Amino acid sequence: MTRQVWLKADDEVGDWDERKRRITAGLEAGVDWVLVDEQDVERVRDLGAVDVAAFTNGDVHVMDAEADEEDEPDIAVVGKDGEGDGSMDIPGDLSGSADLSVLRQDGKATAGYVRIFDQRYEEFAEEVATAADYTIVVGEDWQIIPLENLIARIGDETNLVAGVTTAEEARTAYETLEIGADSVLLDTDDLDEIRKTVEVRDEMGREQVDLVEAEIQEIEQTGSADRVCIDTGNLMEHDEGMLVGSMSRGLFFVHAETAESPYVASRPFRVNAGAVHAYVRTPDGGTKYLSELRSGDEVQVVDTEGRTREAIVGRVKIEKRPMFRVSAEVETDEGVDRIETLLQNAETIKVATSDGRKAVTDLEEGDDVLVYYGDKARHFGEAIEESIIEQ
Question: Any one Gene Ontology biological process term (predicted)?
């Protein structure tokens, strides 16, 4: 599931200057959607690239060739100043609902907005979900239970967007029932809270990998090879690096060059990843050859606890350098498996060991290093059930 952050910026927020400040902060933080009133759609598009949802009174029309796309929202939302927000009474017979009528007409609206005042509104949200691609629910004097009910009952019928005011509320919405809301609608003017909510979204979508120890068997100096440095557009922390290796089933944790040395300044944007033939792990759980990487590609950054995030490749430097062949053994359910990689013969290349960071030039037989081990073969970077021998 891809989590998203919507930012509420309609006239309830304040005048246009106040709305503009909130929208600009959201764009800078990286929100996915902005929810505004119809008259603000073009203004939002002038501020930057973002998907725009807009409250409508139901008079929206199907987009055609003559329509001005700048005026058209990506999603039309019904429910404001209607039954959804309590401005109009919900009829006893929902077949007479004005909001539902609009949602059931092709081209009128694809999202419903419901404030949950009580159980009747919760039931109304369930009905809205049967007709809407997106169902936005905002709790009034409630927290977990109604959201749990809605996730359990309508989770597969619609994209559920839960109203929140803080990053911690967003985390709870994403985690409820271990399924969570698809998205959150954030209502706050706090710029830090907007940024933190986007960070929570990113964190929820990230993979946690299991790193295990492998025992070094051989360290052998080889001749020179074409070595790849991955320079990212992101700064890495002291405990972060990338997973690289000559064999797709076993990737070594190689630290980013965050450490200072007497001879070389730290380069916390760089991982000296090895020879051009080696694999590097990507955010989708696949791999790429180091030789394939180009500016703009995404690679996976991982820390020593297995927490991951993505980084953008800014530059790839390929130069001929003397190398080490590093060989290690991993304990598996089927026995011992040997994995290898080539790393540059230089003090600045460090791997994670049971005793902490260690330069590849200082590695010894018997050292335990962190690796990611998977027993599946790969074809064009995708894990497959096939017998492939790598040695």
Answer: aromatic amino acid family biosynthetic process
| Rounded Cα gap, residues 380 and 391, in angstroms | 18
- C-beta of residue 266 within 8 angstroms of C-beta of residue 224: no
What is the Cα 264 distance to its own chain's centre?
33
Torsion of CA 310, 312, 315, 316, to 10 degrees: 30
Residue with tokens 């909130």: 22
Single pTM value for the model:
0.77
pLDDT confidence of residue 364:
95
Note the pLDDT of residue 149: 82
What are the structure tokens assigned to 237, written together?
């922390």
Token representation of residue 371 = 């690796």
- CA distance between the termini of the chain: 37
Q: Do the Cβ atoms of 142 and 117 come closer than 8 Å?
A: no
Do the Cβ atoms of 221 and 324 come closer than 8 Å? yes
Listed in sequence order, the residues at least 6 apart from 391 whose beta carbon sits closer than 8 Å to its beta carbon are none
Any residues with CB less than 8 A from the CB of 221 and at least 6 apart, and which?
A: 322, 323, 324, 345
Instruction: Determine if residue 298 is left, alpha or beta; phi over 0 gives left, psi from -120 to 50 gives alpha, anything else beta.
Output: beta
Please state, as a whole number, how many other Cβ atoms lie within 10 Å of the Cβ of residue 239: 17
pLDDT of residue 64: 44
Q: Strand pairing partners for 330?
A: 337
Rg value, the chain, Cα: 26
Query: Closest by alpha carbon to 352, among 374, 337, 366, 371?
Result: 371
Residue with tokens 């949802």: 53
Q: What is the pLDDT, as a whole number, of residue 62? A: 42
The pLDDT averaged over each successive group of 10 residues in the chain (391 residues) is 92 96 97 97 96 79 50 93 94 92 84 93 92 91 72 81 94 83 94 96 89 96 97 97 95 95 88 98 94 97 95 97 97 92 96 94 96 68 53 57
**Interatomic CA distance for residues 327 and 322, integer angstroms:** 17
